[in-house]
Automatic annotation (TrEMBL):
The lineage of its organism: Bacteria, Pseudomonadati, Bacteroidota, Sphingobacteriia, Sphingobacteriales. It holds the Pfam family Peptidase_S41. Gene3D superfamilies: 2-enoyl-CoA Hydratase, Chain A, domain 1, 2.30.42.10, 3.30.750.170. It comes from the Bacteria. It comes from Pedobacter alluvionis. This is Carboxyl-terminal protease.
């Protein structure tokens, strides 16, 4: 069953109601589990104010229950969203500044810097807010753009058969499925042992589509084995994210769902880690892949990195190119007034429990990215390097001392792609049964 987040039509009573939604957990329960304790001050919030003030309140109060790292957020009366952001130049600036500040509390112990620190000016590395309410499946205004398949070819190297596929994005599975099926079925006829997967420009998209690609690559012998899991915060896992009662749960047709005699909401979703384990379920006819060489860059992000992570425990995976973006977290859309908010909400772990690539995945072979490459051309720098590695002409080294292949190319450094296209959107949240 799919989930679509449409929220409620804006209403002052609705926003006011949000401010009182934080349940007072029974004292005995609080003592038993400090991790899911909710400060008593959280029920103290203004009942009057402007539309902007109520929205500022709502963004913070949603973060207190939905944000992955909500354990470090202060109480409402300490954070004081109205006082901090009430004098911003514009409404959207106020909301985005607030979201940035929320995202900077949690520090990565390995670096001493925030997990969501980025090179953008006052924009979190992962979470974001935009004008326009989510439509279907956590879809944004503008959606995930770009073609799923950009190029494909077969390369014969003596007795070696190499399949090459360039994936540009992970749009909704309904959009991409037929083309993905066609391409991988064509590849399977030649039974290649090697796959060169080009993700250099793939900023992510839907988790469901990335998972589908993993099932196209994997052999049927992996059926039933863990691919990855999604880990939400303790408030979500324990079913105490009561604020989500204001976000309706809709089926794959955009219709409301009856649950326990009432309309289902996002508060009825199963956020437990055991309820969010995804396993291999073979798709297509490709059964022969053993070694996977993946072309990556700083634009390789989110659902693309999820695909890499899922394959690592089961294949000989080698990365060629430049360090990836670093985004092992995902989200689902929340509607607040006329805005859609994407708070980092879950951590992705592969079958080995690995998720520590917040600073990007280092390549096994560094190759400087050419400008405007012809994808699938065996003389293109990255594909040429991958073929040479498969042929044994380049020896790949451990990531900490990666080989460096320097190419004399007139190159403009890669810039990060548009913030909104770096996504890992979950549109298959399941109700508790």
């Amino acid at each position: 069953m799919k989930i679509y987040n449409t929220g409620c039509t804006y209403d002052y009573k609705f926003i006011k109601g949000i401010l009182f939604l934080f349940l007072i957990v029974a004292c005995t329960s609080c003592k038993k589990d400090k991790q899911i304790e909710i400060d008593k001050e959280e029920i103290v919030s203004p009942t009057t104010g402007t539309r902007t003030e109520f929205t500022l309140d709502s963004i913070f109060l949603y973060a207190k229950q939905v944000y992955l790292w909500n354990d470090v957020l202060p109480g409402y009366s300490t954070f004081k969203p109205r006082e901090k952001y009430g004098n911003a130049q514009s409404e959207i600036s106020a909301f985005r500044n607030e979201l940035f500040d929320i995202s900077q509390f949690k520090l990565n112990q390995a670096t001493g810097k925030p997990f969501e620190l980025s090179t953008y000016n006052n924009l979190p590395k992962y979470s974001y807010l935009q004008i326009g309410r989510t439509s279907g499946g956590g879809n944004r205004a503008g959606a995930i753009s770009g073609e799923a398949v950009l190029a494909k070819r077969l390369i014969r190297l003596d007795d070696k058969v190499i399949a090459y596929v360039a994936l540009g994005s992970f749009p909704s599975l309904s959009t991409a499925k037929s083309k993905l099926d066609q391409v991988f079925d064509e590849i399977s006829a030649d039974k290649p042992k090697y796959l060169v997967l080009d993700l250099r420009s793939n900023g992510g998209g839907y988790v469901e589509t990335a998972e589908y690609v993993a099932n196209l690559i994997a052999p049927s012998t992996l059926n039933g084995k863990v691919m990855y899991s999604e880990q939400f915060n303790q408030i979500l896992q324990s079913g105490k994210a009561t604020i989500l009662r204001h976000q309706p749960y809709l089926d794959e047709n955009g219709k409301t769902v009856t649950y326990n005699g009432r309309l289902a909401t996002l508060a009825d979703v199963d956020y437990t880690e055991s309820g969010n384990i995804y396993k291999f379920n073979k798709k297509g006819n490709l059964e022969s892949i053993q070694d996977v060489y993946i072309i990556v860059s700083g634009q390789t992000a989110s659902a693309s990195e999820l695909l890499i992570s899922c394959l690592k425990p089961y294949f000989n995976v080698k990365l060629i190119g430049e360090k990836t973006y670093g985004k092992p977290v995902g989200f689902f859309g929340i509607n607040i007034d006329q805005y859609s908010v994407y708070l980092s909400s879950f951590l992705i772990k592969n079958a080995q429990g690995w998720s520590d690539y917040f600073n990007g995945m280092e390549p096994d072979l560094n190759v400087t990215m050419p400008n405007n490459p012809t994808l699938g051309d065996t003389e293109e720098a990255c594909l040429k390097a991958a073929v040479a590695a498969i042929d044994g002409k380049i020896q790949l080294q451990p990531k900490k001392s990666a080989s460096i292949l320097r190419l004399n190319l007139n190159r403009i450094p890669l810039a990060l792609i548009d913030k909104d296209s770096i996504g890992m959107i979950e549109n298959r949240l399941k109700l508790k049964y």
